[in-house]
Amino acid sequence: MKKLILIALIAASLGTSGCALMLVGAGVAGGYAISKDSVRNLFDLSNDHVYDESLNAVKELGLVKLEDRTHGLIKAEVHDVDITITVHQVTKRTVELKVRGRSHLFLPKVDVAQEVYNKIIERL
What we know:
Layout: H1 2-15, E1 22-24, E2 32-34, E3 38-43, H2 47-61, E4 63-68, E5 73-78, E6 81-89, E7 95-103, H3 110-123
Antiparallel strand pairs: 1-2, 2-3, 3-7, 4-5, 5-6, 6-7
């Protein structure tokens, strides 16, 4: 019940932020959210584990440009698309993973973001 409430609150907050949002799949916390340029989900895993596996996954796919564990931020380039991965603690047990993809012209590239997200999920 707590997970359902948390997902509903996040979905509501994302829905009011001006981004189109769609919940799909059956992720660890009940489904992942896709907006015009990003994929996000909640996991009951450690922040360090999600960060480390995200970093390893994106290294397999492309070139890492920035690693900032303190702020949970990874920037990379995959298929000529700028990828931004953020990992942050939502509750004591829950971490949010967000993968955003933008072209060099700042156009949304959710397909590449989803490819990176799927690679990360394989590792979790």
